[in-house]
Amino acid sequence: MPLLVMKFGGTSVADLDRIKNAAAKVKREVERGYDVIVIVSAMSGKTNELVGWVEATSPLFDAREYDAVVASGENITAGLMALTLQEMDVPARSWQGWQVPINTTAAHSSARFVDIPRENINAKFAEGFKVAVVAGFQGVSPEGRVTTLGRGGSDTTAVAFAAAFKAERCDIYTDVDGIYTTDPRITTKARKLERIAFEEMLELASLGAKVLQTRSVELAMRYKVKLRVLSSFEDTDENSGTLVCDEDDIMESKVVSGVAFSREEAKITLFTIEDRPGVASAIFGPLADAGINVDMIVQNISEKDYDEAHPGAVTDMTFSCPINQVARAKKALEDAKTAGTIQYDELIIDEDVAKVSVVGIGMRSHAGVAAKMFSALSTENVNIKVISTSEIKISVLIDRKYMELAVQALHDAFELEKA
Amino acid sequence: MPLLVMKFGGTSVADLDRIKNAAAKVKREVERGYDVIVIVSAMSGKTNELVGWVEATSPLFDAREYDAVVASGENITAGLMALTLQEMDVPARSWQGWQVPINTTAAHSSARFVDIPRENINAKFAEGFKVAVVAGFQGVSPEGRVTTLGRGGSDTTAVAFAAAFKAERCDIYTDVDGIYTTDPRITTKARKLERIAFEEMLELASLGAKVLQTRSVELAMRYKVKLRVLSSFEDTDENSGTLVCDEDDIMESKVVSGVAFSREEAKITLFTIEDRPGVASAIFGPLADAGINVDMIVQNISEKDYDEAHPGAVTDMTFSCPINQVARAKKALEDAKTAGTIQYDELIIDEDVAKVSVVGIGMRSHAGVAAKMFSALSTENVNIKVISTSEIKISVLIDRKYMELAVQALHDAFELEKA
Questions:
Q1: Buried b (16+ CB within 10 A) or exposed e, A117-131
Q2: Measured between alpha carbons, how far is B78 from B100 in angstroms, rounded to an integer?
Q3: Contacts of A28 (CB under 8 A, 6+ apart)
Q4: Residues A382-391: what's their mean pLDDT?
Q5: Which residue of A lies nearest to B47 if distances are taken between CA atoms?
Q6: Between 20 and 30 A from B377 (CA), which of A27, A136, A151, B270?
Q7: CB atoms within 10 A of CB A73
Q8: Comparing A161-175, B306-320, B349-363, which segment has the lowest mean pLDDT?
Q9: Identity of the highest mean pLDDT range in A92-106, A339-353, B146-160
């Protein structure tokens, strides 16, 4: 029997009516001849309620107990979804993480999959059940404790099941109807993509397009799981949404597939640091220890060489990080200065920046993308503060107030509105 | 290490502050040198919310999925209680039913304990944990599905753990401060009992004193678990509340320990039925099949013997049942009449009755209790409709409007206000 994995996020199962709506989509696939594994999130708001209780109880909570409490939300949805399907005459059974079992590491609140044995669920399919409704976001540790995968983990659960059960496809039902060339709230020219390559989706996911969790895309890429993103709230068929797939499955790809952006960026510059081997690790070691997600890093030769106050060679170091980590980053750097492991004259923080990126696997074989991007921004008088590139992505840090303008200019320059 | 079981009901863990208050009581016992197994209910209101969702989804729900959904409430409290204890520097770990495991039958929503292996929890105690917080009301079936014990099941969980772990005592913390000679809302003379025998408590529990679930008392009696009922909302010490214990542990017991009552009764009389062997089973068989909890049964020789219309011997049959089962009982009897398995001339339903009972193990060795009871009621002009007796209980059915008067009169007659 061919098998599908279908995942419904929190807004797609927010109340009993929406669960019914989601169940109808599942039933349709069963009628098409599929066995279905449904992965469900907690009803939207539920996880926040549970997290709120845990944090109010114990600010520095024990992650084992956090997981035990928070995973309840998905268990409730799983049971309700199974009941809803039964009401529609679809034989369904719910599965909590330990029942499958979804074996994970013991890294509570950020557990990773170890393996997902197929025996128990397949035995139920063999008995005539058509649907296994699995609580997303959770698993069980080697010690038999409930684990969770971290926020957005239900996407990853879905992909892991699709890989383990060799599903024909993994459909992620969400509150948008696919992956767009950019956020339609920024430009009405934004166009839904029919297909996007895993690598592109990975860059888009990590750049702030919050449709899919990054880890789920990584996992899908590794196991070549065909991922489809589509809307819970529209009628959908086999051509709906956006297919995230291997680049070989994309016939003709454009040079640039999308423009991503992130408002939540900050730029931190250390002025006048020693220019010597080991200085970068002296700076970024303490930041890593403090859990700072350092993103773009730029090092410039400073003008200040041969300054009397600084007889050795000196330089400046600039990096970006999420804006809500700035205070922690500042403290880590100041502590390192106090401890004498790094020196700098001045620490400048710019919290008014945004990151804009163009992404496309076509860049690999096309020169001139960076030049076109910089020219488009320059035409709009957008000053570039930091540049960073990867094989399929060019990112710039700019003043936040120019962000929307920059996205629109780049969307136009690369003609993303055209299919 | 001596071990205590402490159980906190829904109102005792209704919010984070109350959980904190309950945890303080646990901590005090740990400081006294006990290992503690804490059994928790769902935060009050939670179970109703979950049940509401299940019933709205699927009126004739699959009990396996009902159990999976509804048991989540206790899991949440267990995790929050463990976190609260940790915050108070008490090493605590939460346990869901499958983790212990609490092995039950597969009778979903009314499962019974099969066994509770001690190994896993004892291993944690050996590691230095002082408290195991166990989700009440739930277990796991032989098929690895979540089961629940039915409403009030957390009391039963507590007693079962006390029996399995040979606890020194099982303390049931609730919203009343003990067992009273009768409901203090009926008479201010009601007095809290220091001790009460299991048998008496069983009669009181099944007669409508809703402090303890009947099954939990049965289990405590069978395994000689010392049960204590005491208040979550007061300062308590080792002498607080009421001890439910073996009658041998009660030095001098009164003839009557308490007066119980139930408003929710109805009386059903079948007039003119055949007086022949097998007629009772022809009547009560269909009632049992319809799930009617028939309580008191009285059969009278009818005046109508030798009536022309009824040439054989005839009689009347009266029984009582919970008022919310009257409609179902009526239908079962009418169906049986239609089917021809029973005959009767008339079916009279009286929904304006109440049951009042006096309970006491002292009755076994004292004559005249019934006489004293009937005399007290007669003095107040309360007419008795049905009488039923057991070894340690006398119950009467009376007009509901006399119920409070009857309870007060009996409380006075047996001088229950005196210790």
A1: eeeebeebbeeebbb
A2: 13
A3: none
A4: 88
A5: A76
A6: B270
A7: 28
A8: B306-320
A9: A92-106
Q: Where are the domains of chain B?
A: 3-248, 260-413
Contact A56 B84 (CB under 8 A): no
Surface-to-core class of residue B300, CB atoms within 10 Å of its CB (0-12 exposed, 13-18 middle, 19+ buried): exposed
Chain segment B62-91, per-residue pLDDT in tens: 999 999 999 999 999 999 999 999 999 999
Looking at residue B376, its pLDDT comes to: 93
* For residue B49, pLDDT beyond 80: yes
Burial of residue A237, with CB atoms counted within 10 A of its CB: 0-12 exposed, 13-18 middle, 19 or more buried: exposed
pLDDT tens digits for A388-413?
Answer: 888 899 999 999 999 999 999 999 99
What is the biggest distance separating any 2 CA atoms in chain B, rounded to whole angstroms?
84
Report the chain B residue with the minimal C-alpha distance to residue A143: B99
CA dihedral angle for residue B345, residue B350, residue B351, residue B356, rounded to 10 degrees: -130
Q: At what angle do helices A46-57 and A63-70 cross, to 10 degrees?
A: 150
- A151 confidence band (pLDDT: 50, 70, 90): low
**pLDDT higher than threshold 80 for residue B307:** no
Does A72 contact B72 at a Cβ distance shorter than 8 Å? yes
pLDDT reported for residue A310? 58
Look up the CATH number of domain B3-248.
3.40.1160.10
Q: What is the pLDDT of residue A362?
A: 86
3-state secondary structure of A384: strand
Q: How far is B414 from chain A (nearest CA, A)?
A: 49
CB contact under 8 A, A76 and B145: no
Of the given ranges (A283-292, A307-316, A372-381), which has the lowest mean pLDDT? A307-316
Identify which of B90, B50, B44, B48 has the alpha carbon closest to the alpha carbon of residue B66.
Answer: B50
Instruction: Answer whether B54 touches A (CB < 8 Å).
Output: yes
On the question of pLDDT at A309 being above 80, the answer is no
Mean pLDDT across B393-407: 94
Contact call for residues B82 and B133 (beta carbons, < 8 A)? yes
Output the CATH code of domain A3-247.
3.40.1160.10
Q: Given CB atoms, is B72 within the 8 Å cutoff of chain A? A: yes
Coil, strand or helix at A267: strand
Q: B-contacting residues of A 83-112, CB under 8 Å?
A: 83-84, 86-87, 93-94, 96, 98-99
In this predicted structure, the answer to whether residue A305 has a pLDDT above a threshold of 60 is no
Report how far residue A229's alpha carbon sits from residue A212's, in angstroms, rounded to the nearest whole number.
Answer: 8
Q: How far apart are CA B308 and CA B187, in angstroms?
A: 52
Contact present, A138 and A77 (Cβ < 8 Å): no
Measure the CA dihedral A371/A373/A374/A375, to 10°.
80
How far apart CA A175 and CA A232 sit, in angstroms, is 6
What is the distance, to the nearest Å, from the Cα of residue A183 to the centroid of all Cα atoms in its chain?
15
Burial B322-355 (b: 16+ CB within 10 A, else e): ebebbeebbebbeebeeeeebebeeeeebeebbb
Question: How far is the C-alpha of A238 from the C-alpha of B123, rounded, in Å?
Answer: 53
Distance CA B73, CA B155 (A): 16
What is the nearest CA distance from A141 to chain B, expressed in angstroms? 12
Amino acid residing at B28 = R
Instruction: For residues B286 and B344, give the distance between their C-alpha atoms in angstroms, rounded to a whole number.
Output: 15
| pLDDT score, position B316 | 85
Which CATH fold would you assign to the domain A260-413? VC0802-like (3.30.2130)
